[in-house]
What we know:
Layout: E1 6-8, H1 10-21, H2 24-27, E2 37-41, E3 64-67, E4 74-77, E5 83-85, E6 100-102, E7 111-116, H3 119-122, E8 131-138, H4 141-144, E9 152-159, E10 166-172, E11 179-183, E12 193-195, E13 203-209, E14 222-230, E15 237-238, E16 245-247, E17 252-259, E18 268-275, E19 283-293, E20 300-307
Antiparallel strand pairs: 1-19, 2-15, 2-18, 3-14, 4-7, 5-6, 6-14, 7-13, 8-11, 8-14, 9-10, 9-13, 10-12, 16-17, 17-20, 18-19
Amino acid sequence: MVNTNVIKTRAGKRIVLYRSNTQNGSLSSTQYLPESKAKVGINAVTPNIDNTDLSLIIPVLDGTVCDNGANTLTGSSGGDNTTDNTVTFKQGGGVTDVTGQNLIANTSSVTKKWAISDLASAGVNADSTKYVGLWLYIKDSATLAKFLTAGTCLEIRIGADTTTNYYSKVYTASELSVLWNWLSDNDLLSSWDVNGTPGVLNDFAIIITTNNATDSFVAGDVVYDLLRQWESSDTLFSIEGGVATLDFNSLTSTKSFFLSTTMANGFLIDNIAAFNEDTSPLMGLEASFAEDSKSNTDQWRLQFVERIIL
C-alpha cells in the first residue's frame, strides 16, 4: 500500500539543509543527524509540518509486566472479585497467559473497585520513572452507557496503597469507546496526579463509577488485561541496514523499518514517524494510514521513500 498522507516536518527539512550544506568536518557532529529510528502509534492526528512527536506513542518492545492479567483482582464497594476470561484478552508485553480479568460489578454502590495489593507477587512493582499502560475492554454501547455520563467515570490508581497514597489517572465516558481501550499517554507515571505519598508502587486499582448503583457488570461486559511499563528506548526501532538506501538514478532515498512478530503486538497502529539520534531527537518524517491490527503472527516492513524533484 502506497500512502500519500506523509510529511517532511520542519525539523526534517532542517536536517536536509544542514546535511546538504555543511563542510565534511562538521558532518561528523552529533547535530542534525539523519533519521535512523522510528516510532509507531495509535489515535493518529493529521501529519503536520510543525509536529514534533506522535499523538500517542506505543511500546514496540516488551518493557516489563507489572500484572499479566491472569491474577484475580479483589473487589470492594460495588465490585466483586474478578474472574478469568480466556476468550477476551490482549496480546503484548511478551506474555503468554491468554487470560484477561472480568470486572464483575454488583448493585450495592455506584463506585465499583477492583485491586491488586501485591504487584511484586503478580509481576513487578510499578516504577514512577517509566511509562505505564493497560487495556480495558467494554463489550458494547449498552455497557458503556452504564459508566457515569458526567464527570469522572474511570480512575486508575498505582501506589503504596490505593486509598490515600497513589498516582492517579482519570477518564470521562467521552474518552472511552466500545471494545478495547488502551489507557496510557505520553507522560511518565510520575506526571500523573498525586495523592498523598505514593511510595513503593506495589498496589494497583481500577475504579469505575456508574450512573446508578443498580448498574451491574457480568462476565464479559468489562475486561481488564495487561498492566505494563516501559522506557523511551522501548518505543524505538532501528532503520534496516543502519542507513537509508539511495538510488541516484531516480533521486530517491528509502528508509525501511521492520517490526517482527514479537514487536508492537495487540495495537491498532495508524501512524509512524522517523527520528534522528540527536541528544534531543528530532522527528523528521511523519505518516498516518488506515489503522491495522498488529498480532504475534504479523511481520511489518514500513518504508519512507523520499524523492528529489528536478
